[in-house]
């Protein structure tokens, strides 16, 4: 295992209302709380010798700022833009300017939900999309990103 400072840092961005995971009465996003999901993802990243900057904001501009901040600092961004997935051209533009790898992830299967969720602006910038697997999808995104940034098939 390499020294902590030598480990690549991935950015894992979560959009509006992700902080409410586990609190939804109809459990569309599962029963695991956001802090528990964050811990789960940090443990997964550490097992792959990666650092993880796992953040959440309800504000579009903050997500854009983080995408720009990741430039030159990270080889990859994993993003669940939540409701902004279906409406944010500015987030798409920021992602298109990011030189590294991008994976789009969703807790729920967006194609089994309301029709407005079937079109993602984020997908145009993403190297891949994982949807509908809940917290396991988040872990799979970290694993896939590890392979992408290290050149593994």
UniProtKB/TrEMBL annotation:
GO terms for biological process: amino acid biosynthetic process; aromatic amino acid family biosynthetic process; chorismate biosynthetic process; quinate catabolic process. Pathway: Metabolic intermediate biosynthesis; chorismate biosynthesis; chorismate from D-erythrose 4-phosphate and phosphoenolpyruvate: step 3/7. The active site is at residues 29, 106. The keyword Ribosomal protein does not apply. Catalyzes a trans-dehydration via an enolate intermediate. Homododecamer. This is 3-dehydroquinate dehydratase. It comes from Bordetella ansorpii.
């Amino acid at each position: 295992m390499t020294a902590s400072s030598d480990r690549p840092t991935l950015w894992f961005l979560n959009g509006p209302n992700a902080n409410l995971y586990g609190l939804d009465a109809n459990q569309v996003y599962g029963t695991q709380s956001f802090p528990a999901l964050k811990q789960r993802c940090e443990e997964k990243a550490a097992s792959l010798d990666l650092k993880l900057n796992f953040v959440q904001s309800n504000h579009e501009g903050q997500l854009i700022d983080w995408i720009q901040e990741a430039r030159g600092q990270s080889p990859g961004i994993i993003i669940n833009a939540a409701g902004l997935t279906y409406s944010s051209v500015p987030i798409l533009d920021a992602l298109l300017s990011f030189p590294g790898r991008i994976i789009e992830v969703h807790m729920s299967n967006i194609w089994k939900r309301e029709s407005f969720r079937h079109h993602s602006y984020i997908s145009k910038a993403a190297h891949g999309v994982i949807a509908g697997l809940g917290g396991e999808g988040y872990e799979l995104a970290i694993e896939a990103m590890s392979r992408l940034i290290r050149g593994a098939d």
